[in-house]
Queue: 3 jobs
Job 1
Amino acid sequence: MKYLIMLLLLTSDVYAQTWFCTEESSRREKGQISACGVGAGTTEDQARLDAANHAKAEFDHICNASSDCKDHEVFVEPRRTTCEQERGGFKCYRLIVYLIGKPVVHQKVEYAMTNQDLINKMINDGLQRHKKVMDEFDRLNAREMQRYKH
């Protein structure tokens, strides 16, 4: 019995030392991407943040290369983080699982006028209306002139 307990303690310690992010950087399975990041820093917080940023970069690299991920909804499931103190700082491993959802529908973006475009349009519209009024004035004026000549 004593040997069984020792064996269980030793195997559980070995199992704790090897987990997904110490063996692989990412894995893709049925609508999800498991991405790992490794980070280092002088504080544990810095190392954790660095590891999370590297996991996100790993996901982005895979997703942008995949037609069934790019332009799809993505749901984030933070998972395990393990940190170790080493050489005056910390090293962390971070696992984040990204669930790929349905495609995102992009709405057409209409041409948006700048202020200068809007001012120019108003000026042009005003000039066109002014020209029409002046043309009508000239036509009526010419007709009146004809009437007085006879």
Job 2
Amino acid sequence: MDNTNKDLREQLAATQLQLGASQRVTEEIAQYLNFNLNHLSQCDQPVSWLHGRLKEEIESSVYLQLRMGLSAALMALDKASGLGTSNEQKVVIDALYIEEIRKGLGKLLARMEEFSGSQLWDAGLFLGFSQNWLHYLLRADLILRAYFAKQKGVGFLQEAISLASSAVKAALLELDVGLVRIELFEPLQTGVEPVEIHYNLRKLPVVQNLIQERLSKGNNLFVVDVISFPIRLNGKQIISGRAAVVNPSDWMQNL
């Protein structure tokens, strides 16, 4: 009898160790993929819940694809922010709304587990565009590629933003949401509202030099900044576009 009780205690201890290990692994996976840890801690069976949710997201590939892409991008953004910044880099970060983008990514990822089907667009991505931070993300990707491709010190930030932007664009394609592209240094498209360039972006030497170089070649009235991107759904435009266009005389007077 004593031997039997000893064996049962040993089996119970081993089971508890395995359960504890499973819960730790579950928490690490949830943290890496930016699930809502508060929600997970309230589940009676967190291991089973996470397994079930991941299975749902795998079956609806756009969910898991977006979660993995944005989670990797968020990790890269955190690393980029920890590399230190010069005064000029701080101006770039402010002009590109990097902190707003980071917060928006985190909130979207934490809420994705509440969505299913078309809710990813209705309550997730559409809300992000309505709150502007998804416009900021696509704009930051555009500006970093156009103005800062050859600049030192922003490479890691550029890759992180590009990763997040690509994940969002891929999700929009799978959801049949039309993102109308606006390119810098091209004429303003019909239907896109002209606005002013961001004041912090305008005062950066690299931006001034590239715009001045194009003006000196006779180019004018081209797009130099994008505030919002046109979005189409079911053949109708549901979000309007706004972009800054350089005016040669005004630009020279206000340098």
Job 3
Amino acid sequence: MPLNWGVSKSLTTSWFYLLLGVTVYALYVLLKRYRQQYIGALLFVSISALLGFTTYDQTRHWRNDVLLWERVIDIYPDSASIAYVNLASAHDAKGSMDAEQIEQLLNKALSISPNEPYNLGAIANFYGRLGNEQKALEYLLRLVDIAPYNSWAQAQIGDIYFKRNDIANAGNYYLTALKHGSESEKVIFRLAVIDYHYQRYADALSKLEILTPAKTGAKEKALRKKIENALANPTR
């Protein structure tokens, strides 16, 4: 699908308004000269037709997310970076575009606003879902460089380093995520794992205590057991 999909529709709408205006003006001139008593009726009908068509023209763009964001891009093609991201998300949700086409929309958004945190996060998430971890990390690092307060991005970077067994970097990003407001229980659990790795058993236990009991599963129980064994047998 071409990125300027809505241009022809926009031109059609513009021509309609122009022709309507010319027609109304011509009728007004004729009625003013020959039938002045009908001028009020003409104005009423014209305004009703204008409002009716405007309402129809707008509501057809609200039928679904794809049409909505295409309309925004049609109106603001050079500044609608977030609209391109949302359009990509809408197509992705519907399955109406393949990954290459969605990537094209995301790259367009990035070309308009290369430092917009929302765009960088969406692109990082897109590559993460595709399994391109390195590409996702690249955009996440750009995001936290611009917006270090973004706890979601900090936690995502921590996850990537954690999977790579880069415990030091994972811990740093997880701590930053907590500092900036993340309350993810996964982050807290993984910090407990990191504390256990560095034999900070008391810190690890204190973090496990924060976790919601209802969400404590086999992994959390296993870690607690390891910590308790380590504390009971410090020489091992």
